[in-house]
Amino acid sequence: MRIAAGVLLILAGVFNGCAGTGYAFGGAAGAAAVEGAGALSEAMMKEAAKEGNADAKAAAEAMAEVNANASGAKAAAGGMMIFGFFLLIMLGLQIAGGVVLFMSKAAKFVMIVGGLGILAELGGMAFGVPFGLTNILGIVGSVLAIMASKAYADGAGDAPAAPAAPAAPAAEG
Questions:
Q1: According to the model, what pLDDT value does residue 55 have?
Q2: Quick check: is 173 in a domain?
Q3: Exposed e or buried b for every residue in 133-170, given b needs 16+ CB within 10 A?
Q4: What pLDDT score was predicted for residue 168?
Q5: pLDDT (tens digit per residue) in 130-162
Q6: Which DSSP state fits 155?
Q7: Angle at alpha carbon of residue 63, lines to 59 and 66, rounded to 5°
Q8: String of b and e for 109-124 (b: at least 16 CB within 10 Å)?
Q9: C-alpha distances in angstroms, 31 versus 5, 49, 99, 127, 154?
Q10: I need a labelling partner for 5 at 20 to 30 A (CA). Which of 44, 82, 137, 157 fits?
């Protein structure tokens, strides 16, 4: 079970790395777009004021509304970027967890990585991403990793047996 859990954990880590890259770049692009739109609308308002446009007051009110909405969009983009970085960190942690599962070492580390893996798979739903096959794969891998590490931490499971002690030399005489 620990080998299967390790393989699934590494696979989930690779999927999380791909998704994390998308979230990080998407969040950064969204924040930059919101910032650019705010600067553009501010420049347009200044230009309207220079021309003595009668609708400058209405434009100022619209600008205030745009800025209020932009702060929420910028916060959402920042949240996406942070979640993307978390998924990129999970890439490394899940690969390390899979490797130590193969060696039946660091049971507590694998349990922590398994718990974080479950959180990572459920976290995408906060951004409206539908729950799919890769999420199920990640959750199954994380649960199996927790179960396998608990099994070899307790001395049960399919952990390799300790090598036999060398035989003592025969006594002469």
A1: 65
A2: no
A3: ebbebbbbbbbbbbebbbbbbeeeeebeeeeeeeeeee
A4: 67
A5: 888 888 888 999 999 999 999 888 876 554 555
A6: T
A7: 140
A8: ebbebbebbbebbebb
A9: 37, 27, 37, 15, 48
A10: 82
Q: Is residue 23 part of a domain?
A: yes
- In a domain? residue 117: yes
User: Which CATH number characterizes residue 57's domain?
Assistant: 1.20.1260
Q: Which domain holds residue 91?
A: 2-153
Taking only the tens place, the pLDDT of each residue in 41-65 is 677 767 766 776 656 666 667 777 7
- Is pLDDT at 109 greater than 90 in this prediction? yes
The Cα 157–Cα 146 span in angstroms is 12
In a domain, 96, yes or no: yes
Lowest pLDDT segment from 72-81, 89-98, 160-169: 160-169
pTM: 0.72
Range in 16-25, 51-60, 74-83, 112-121 with the lowest mean pLDDT: 51-60
Q: Which two tokens stand for residue 36?
A: 């650019």
| Secondary structure class of 11 (helix, strand, coil) | helix
Tally of structural domains, the chain: 1
Three-state SS at 156: coil
Residues 115 and 103: their CA atoms lie apart, in Å, by 20
